[in-house]
Each structure stands twice: as C-alpha cells, then as structure tokens.
Design brief:
There is one protein chain. This protein is an alpha/beta fold and about 260 residues long. The chain is globular. Helices cover about 25% and strands about 20% of the residues. Strands 2-1-5-10-12-13-14-15 form an 8-stranded mixed sheet, with helices on both faces. It has a 3-stranded mixed sheet with strand order 7-6-11, with no helix packed on it. A hairpin with a 6-residue loop joins strand 13 and strand 14. The protein has one domain: Glutaconate Coenzyme A-transferase (3-Layer(aba) Sandwich).
C-alpha cells in the first residue's frame, strides 16, 4: 500500500506504545501516533494532555490545541495543567509520552525554543534567537518526569545535530550518568522515531545509534542526514512496512488526511 513518510513515522511510533500505559501526548503528530496505538493495539491506553483532558479520542481530525473541541468532546474528565504535569508527570506516575522536536542531538536533548546563529552555550550568554519557535510547552516537564518518552522528528541534518542550540527538553544531557546525577524522576527518551528510522540510546554512553531504518532509505542515507557520526547497531534491521490494517486505523484517526497532505 502507498503511504507517506509521516504516516510511516506515526505508525512506527505507535508500535512503541504499550496497552494500559498512562501516557501524555503533545499536539500534532505525537497525538495522532498515540491515538493510532489506542485504536490499533492498545485499547486500554490511558491518555491525557498537558491541559488536563483525560480519556478522550480525537473527533473530526487533528486537534489544533490541547483543549480544542476535537480533543475535549468525549473526554472522561477535565482537570488542569497543574494536575496533569505536576501530579501525574513530575511525580513519576506517567508511563510514557510522545513529544516533537525542531532539533534533537546525539543524547536526545530537544530544542523547541529557537534557532541561533551563535547558540547560547557557545556565546556564553542568552541572546534573542534568529528564529523564535513555539517553546517547550509541557515537554520540559515530560522530559524530566515521565518514566520514559518517545521523540518524533523529521530526519534532516539541520535538525539532527551534534549539540542542539538550546535544551528546551532534557534528554541525557551530555551522556553517561549525567541525567541520574541531576536527580530527574523520569528515565529519559527510549527512542527517537524519525522519517527515516528508529534511533535508541546506548545503555552506557546514552548516545543514540541507528537501530532500524525504513525500507525506502539506506543506512548511508540516514547517516548523511545526521549531524553527528551516527553509530549503527550490529543487528540493524529494516522496519516492517505498515500493514493494511495499521494504515486503516491510522487514517481513521487522521480523518482530515493531515499526514497524507504533509508527508
């Protein structure tokens, strides 16, 4: 069957989500990937948003925000961001999450704050970025509080960087045990799912390596589009293509065809 790269990424992300998890989704592709998982193989998924909407599924297409009618119409309950991010996420109760990234580096740190000609870590001070992005929203809390989480990103060299311009959401910082030494409740990102494949963290160094790649690309192409010297698993494999049933379920959630229009 025909599918877009974005659809493949959403299905692949959804496959990483397990039934009965308590999970928080960011708006956009993360939300569609998550609700695809709920419809496809995880009917008991307990989903909520950073705004405190719990137990809903999108109605009529991609929600434009965390509290829009498409995501609140059939919610089980409503609370607020303090409960969602403070009580459920930062207490370590949330099992999983899915967030997006404008930039991501080899240790899974995410930037959604801005793009700089000279990044703050290099300049030694914070200056206004050349391009101001939307910010982290709840992803900063998610990155330090969830037991683990998934990152979705378009795989381009300008996005997959040796070191992000600014850490909006913490991955493994500069690797090794640095995250543990900071005392974060959550365990960190378990995978980066891109438009070309799946990257996972090395158990010791925490540097992300290529675990699997999509059938329409190659290992060399993935490396060419990565801004660091990407290591490749000895057991690297090709990700299975979406099945007809998976695409049907994904498109049931994506009723407006957002992934097909933008993939």
């Amino acid at each position: 069957m025909e599918y877009t790269k974005q659809e493949f990424m959403a299905v692949t992300t959804g496959r990483e989500i397990k039934d009965s998890e308590l999970i928080i989704f960011g708006v956009g592709l993360p939300m569609l990937a998550g609700y695809f998982a709920k419809l496809n193989h995880a009917p008991n998924l307990r989903a909520f948003t950073e705004g405190g909407i719990y137990g809903s599924t999108p109605v009529g297409g991609l929600p434009w925000g965390i509290e829009c009618n498409r995501i609140s119409t059939n919610a089980t309950s409503f609370t607020n961001a303090i409960d969602a991010l403070g009580f459920l996420v930062l207490s370590g109760r949330a099992d999983n999450a899915v967030i997006g990234a404008a930039q991501v580096d080899k240790y899974g740190n995410v930037n959604t704050t801005g793009i700089w000609d000279e990044p703050p870590w290099k300049a030694g001070k914070y200056l206004a970025p050349r391009v101001r992005l939307n910010g982290s929203g709840g992803a900063s809390d998610i990155s330090v509080g969830c037991k683990h989480y998934l990152i979705m990103a378009s795989h381009e060299k300008r996005r997959f960087m040796e070191k992000v311009d600014y850490i909006s959401s913490a991955g493994y910082l500069d690797g090794g045990d640095r995250r543990e030494r900071c005392g974060f409740v959550g365990g960190g990102p378990s995978a980066i799912i891109s438009t070309l494949g799946i990257l996972r963290p090395d158990p010791q160094t925490k540097e992300f390596y290529l675990d699997a790649y999509f059938p329409f690309t190659t290992i060399d192409k993935v490396k060419e589009n990565t801004g660091w010297n990407l290591k490749v698993s000895q057991d690297v494999k090709i990700v299975p293509e979406p099945t007809a049933e998976e695409l049907k379920n994904l498109r049931t959630v994506d009723t407006t065809g957002f992934l097909r229009k933008n993939g």
